[in-house]
Amino acid sequence: MMQMVHSRFNALLSACVLSLIATAGWSQSITWLGTLPRGNSSAAYAVSADGVVVGMATYYDNISGNYYRRAFRWTASGGMQNLGTLGGTQSEARGVSADGSVVVGWASNAAGLRRAFRWTASGGMQELGTLGGTESMALGVSADGSVVVGWASNAAGLRRAFRWQNGVMQDLGTLGGTQSEALGVSADGAVVVGYAVNAAGQQRAFRWTASGGMQDLRSYDGSVAYGVSADGRVVVGDYYYRGYYYSFRWTAAGGVQELSTLRGYSSSNAYAVAVSDDGPVVVGRAYDNERLPVAFRWTLPRGTEDLTMTYTLWTYPSVLREARAISPDGRYIVGYGVNAATNRSEAFLLDTRPRCAPDGDVNCDGIVDDADLLIVLFNFGNRYR
Questions:
Q1: Fold annotation for 2-379
Q2: How far is Cα 209 from Cα 226, in angstroms, rounded to an integer?
Q3: How do the domains of the chain map onto residue ranges?
Q4: pTM for the full model?
């Protein structure tokens, strides 16, 4: 009799698992990256092709009694590594090379000024300088780590988009105005995107190449380009129109294409910040009906989807608030969310590659048991946000 009950239990478990998998899509696993010792928050800003994550995490300084931001580099084998500063108290990592060996970002120096840096394991944190001013930030890096982009102040104290290579920082100019920032770069370092002010004082998304210079993407006023595909052909960002922010995807052939709004929500505010290798997958942040941030992913066949809802099996009751980057092949997505286990804002690494669940091993512990069934039952039909 007990054997028959056990068999029925396994059958029910398998049916529930398969049903939930069909509902949740091809969901896989999420890793919450935690924070630095005695810290209270973290956020991931970039991910390499093999899952190395970089970003910012707080830590508590016993001497000053304050929380400080520190750039981190995280690996599955080594955990979260504090990359330090340039003599000050704060830093953030904003970009990482394809193999995870080069990290870029900004760090404060002894005078408390922000300076762009390029970090390697052998050389540590290298300051990249400015364009004659006092501050700079590195916000993107090429696949091989040789080209860095961001913004730096000039002698007049104005921010200018820069492209750094072989120790030389190049001012990329503006669209006729006074300021600009570079926010993303293609895999080979040849295409740079960001925003610049035009002669009318309007902020416009741009795409820069050495041969063509700074190209206005001709979106609405108040636009920003945050990310570019590996081949430089697809640009993503947002634009402001009649009180709302809309995410867009740009190509030379199609121009600015507005991405669909978040399914099930009426809010239109959305910010596309990163795109996969050849441009078919876009990630970013949108807002739900309660005006809470929601991490989203856009693809042509599925449109814009709430990642928390798509990956409910692996995230519930935690919530993914913003997707900040995606690996070249679209497998890894990183950002920040609310980790229910710690009740704090933390960096996450979402692995979208299928694993475990098709065999009923929902929590991936190598055993199909009551724990797997409980996860399924608690999440079945759930639309948590």
A1: Neuraminidase (2.120.10)
A2: 16
A3: 2-379
A4: 0.85
Please, are residues 366 and 9 in contact by the beta-carbon 8 Å criterion?
A: no
What the block records as the tokens of 221 is 């006023």
**Burial class of residue 40 (count of CB atoms within 10 Å of its CB; 0-12, 13-18, 19+):** middle
Structure tokens at 344: 């704090």
Q: Which long-range contacts (CB under 8 A, 24 or more apart) does 127-136 make?
A: 127/86, 128/164, 128/169, 129/169, 130/154, 130/169, 131/155, 131/160, 131/162, 131/169, 131/171, 133/157, 133/158, 136/106, 136/162
DSSP assignment of 238-281 equals EEEETTEEEEEEEETTTEEEEPPPPTT-----EEEEEE-TTSSE
Strands 319-326 and 332-339: antiparallel
DSSP characters over 156-223: TS-EEEEEEETTEEEE---BEEEEEEEEEE-TTS--EEEEEEETTS-EEEEEEETTTEEEE----TT-
Per DSSP, the three-state class of 81 is strand
C-beta separation of 319 from 308 below 8 A: yes
Please give the Cα distance from 321 to 284 (Å, whole number): 9
CA nearest to 193, candidates 182, 203, 202: 182
User: HSE (CB half, 13 Å, CA atoms) of 333?
Assistant: 31
In tens digits, what is the pLDDT along the chain, a chain of 385 residues?
444 444 444 444 444 444 444 444 434 789 999 999 899 999 999 999 999 999 999 998 888 889 999 999 999 999 999 999 999 999 999 999 999 999 999 999 999 999 999 999 999 999 999 999 999 999 999 999 999 999 999 999 999 999 999 999 999 999 999 999 999 999 999 999 999 999 999 999 999 999 999 999 976 778 999 999 999 999 999 998 888 889 999 999 999 999 987 766 655 688 999 999 989 999 999 988 888 899 999 998 888 999 998 887 778 899 999 999 999 999 999 999 999 999 999 999 999 875 555 556 555 555 677 766 766 666 555 433 3
φ, ψ (nearest 5 deg) of residue 239: -140, 155
For 32, the enclosing helix (H) or strand (E) is: strand 29-32
